Amino acid sequence: MSVRVRFAPSPTGALHIGGVRTALYNYLFAKKNGGTFILRIEDTDQNRYVPGAEDYIIESLKWLGITPDEGVGFGGDFGPYRQSERQALYEKHAHDLVARGKAYYAFDTPEELEELRKSRDNFTYNYQERTRLKNSLNMPQEEVRRRLDAGEACVIRLMVEPGQDIHIHDLIRGDVVFQSSELDDKVLLKADGMPTYHLANIVDDYQMQITQVIRGEEWLPSTAHHVLLYQAFGWEDQMPQFAHLPLILKPVGNGKLSKRDGAKFGMPVFPLDWEGGAGEEKFAGFRETGFLPAAVLNFLALLGWHPGNDQEIFSPNELVQAFSIEHISKGGARFDYEKAKWFNQQYIHASSDAELAERIRPAAAARNYRTDTEYLTQIAGLMKERVTVIPDFVEQGYYLFEPVSGYDDEMIRKKWDAALQPAMDTLIGAIEAQEPFAAPELEEMVKQYLQENGIKPGAVLPLLRLALAGTMKGPAVFEMAVVLGKAETVDRLKNGLQYFNQVVDSPAG
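Given the sequence above, the corresponding C-alpha cells read:
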C-alpha cells in the first residue's frame, strides 16, 4: 500500500507553530516516499469552533508551500474531508460497536458524573465503576430500548476490558506498553450525536487508508484507546503505524512553547498574524514579521529532526530527500528564535534582488514609499547583506526612501572638523560634476581627490556616510549615492555639512 499521511488540525483558533511542524513532517514523509499528504479538518467540537480558523490553516499551509494532495480545499477521492460533514458515518460505526458488544449506551447525566467526581477521589468511568452506573450493561434491554425510543440523552462509550497489555511500536519511541486496567471507557459518541476525537479519528484514518499517523507526543496516551478501537472494529490489519513527535519547548525555562510565549519573548509563534474574536489577543505571525517561507520550513524541520551530518541550510526539495523518521529525536526541541532569524538572514542573502523587491513592496507601500520594481530591486541589492527580516529594508533603510530624520551626533563630534569645510565643498562640487554617476567611477574620483589633497580617506568617507544616511551602519557609500541619485546625494551632502557645523558649535559639542 502506498504511503498516505494526514494533518488533521481543529479549527479552534490559529495554527500554532508546533502544528505547522507536524504538518511539515507529514508532508516531508509523504514526498520522500512518493505518497499522499492529506488535510483533514477535525471540527466535531462545535463549542470551540472559531470562525476563520479553517481558512487560516489553509492559507498558512499554502504560504509555506506545504501543499496537500487531498483535503479540504484541495479535493480528492476520500472526502468529505471535514468531519462535521461525516456525522452519519460516525453514528453508524458507534452503533455497530454496541451491536458487537464492544461499546454501550450510557445515560448518566453530566451533572450526575460531576457529582461523582466531587464525592470520590480519582473517579474514573471504567470497568470497576460502570457496573454501578446508568448504562445499557446494567439495564434490561427493554429499558434501554424505551429510553432510546423516547430520545433520552445518552452517550456511547467504548467498553475497555481489564487485564490486557496494549503494545504499540512507535516509529520514534520504540515499544510502548499500556495496561488496559488503567484506562477509562472513553466516550465515542456524544449526546448531541457528534463523535469524540477518538471515534472520528479512527474511522477517518481507516476510511482514508492512512498508513502512518505522525502527530505530537501529547496524543501518545490516547493511542492505547485507538488500538483498542481498531481491534473492536476488526481493523487490526489496516491499523497505521504511529510516530509521536517531541515537544517544542520554550526558549528559556521549562515547559511546552505556548501561544503567549510569543508576546512574552517578543517573537512570532504562529505562521501568520492572528486576531481572534472580541476580547481575544492578537498574535504575530512569521509572515508579517518578515520571514521567508523557505527559511521557516528550514528552521522548523531542524526542531526535533537532524540530517545525520552538519548541514543546516536545506531547500524544500533537499529537505524531502534528507528527511527520515529515524532521525527524529525523542526529547523536546528548544525554540531558538535567534536561530530562526539566522536562517532568515541566510535565505535573504541567497535570494535574488528581483524576488526581494516583490517582498519589500508591501512594506514600502504601507509607508507610502516608492514601490516601482526598478528602485526596490536596487534597494534589495544594497541592503540584503545587512537585514534580518523583510521590514528591515524599509525600517533600517528608511533614508533610502525619505530624507534623513536623525543623525548620529556623537559620531559627528568625533569625525567632523570645520577645517575640512573648504575641501568638502570642493568635493561636493566634483561629485555634482561627475559623469557617469556610477559607483566605481565615483569611488575612484573621490579617492583620487583625497590623495591629491593629502586627505586621509578615514577623515572624509565616514562624513559622506553620515550625511547620506545619518548613521555609520548604512550600506556602501558610493553604491548608496548612486541609488539615491546625483541630485539627492548632493543635497544631502550640503545639508549634512550644515548640520555637522551646528552640532559641533552647539554647547553640547
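Residues 9 and 19 are 8 Å apart (CA to CA). Try to locate this feature in the C-alpha cell string yourself.
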